[in-house]
Specification:
By secondary structure, the chain is an alpha+beta fold. The protein is 50% helix and 22% strand.
């Protein structure tokens, strides 16, 4: 169980800080929720405590792991082949995994593909979502602004 003030990751939404734990009644069913503020976009989400494992909620990574993620962005990439539909499905699975290394891989490959060939509308939305997830966690770990983290990501990718 997490506590107020803990920094957690909500796959598909990003990292945030638990502001409170509240009991809410929704559709006649009472349960306890984590109220989490996600700094990117200043979004607030309610996460049912009993669904935390099912959803894949986890603590944010530590400073050393954040450095590993940023260093991984510097590594040479091999492009995925195949059609955009297959690539889209594979990237979506990586984002849903909640694994920051896989999310970083999606961000890197889509940013490089965008620079080289451009992206479809769906891939642009996916890139924005994955970038938000990656930035939100790194902001909390590195204690930097979203703009600073975005500049570091772009620099490490080589853009």
């Amino acid at each position: 169980m997490f506590n107020i003030g803990d920094k957690i990751v909500y796959p598909m939404h990003g990292a945030g800080v638990i502001e409170s734990i509240e009991e809410k009644e929704i559709l006649g069913h009472k349960q306890n929720y984590y109220i989490v503020r996600i700094p990117i976009g200043d979004m607030k989400v309610m996460i049912p405590i009993e669904s935390v494992d099912e959803i894949g909620i986890r603590e944010i990574i530590d400073e050393e792991q954040a450095d590993e993620v940023l260093n991984a962005l510097k590594q040479k990439t091999t492009y995925e082949t195949g059609n955009w539909n297959k690539r889209y499905r594979e990237n979506m699975l990586k984002i849903k995994s909640g694994n920051i290394f896989e999310v970083a891989e999606v961000v890197k490959s889509l940013m490089l593909r965008d620079k080289e060939k451009g992206l479809s509308t769906g891939e642009k939305k996916m890139l924005n979502s994955a970038r938000q997830i990656l930035i939100s966690e790194l902001v909390l770990v590195k204690n930097k602004t979203p703009e600073e983290i975005e500049n570091i990501i772009e620099s490490n990718i080589g853009l």
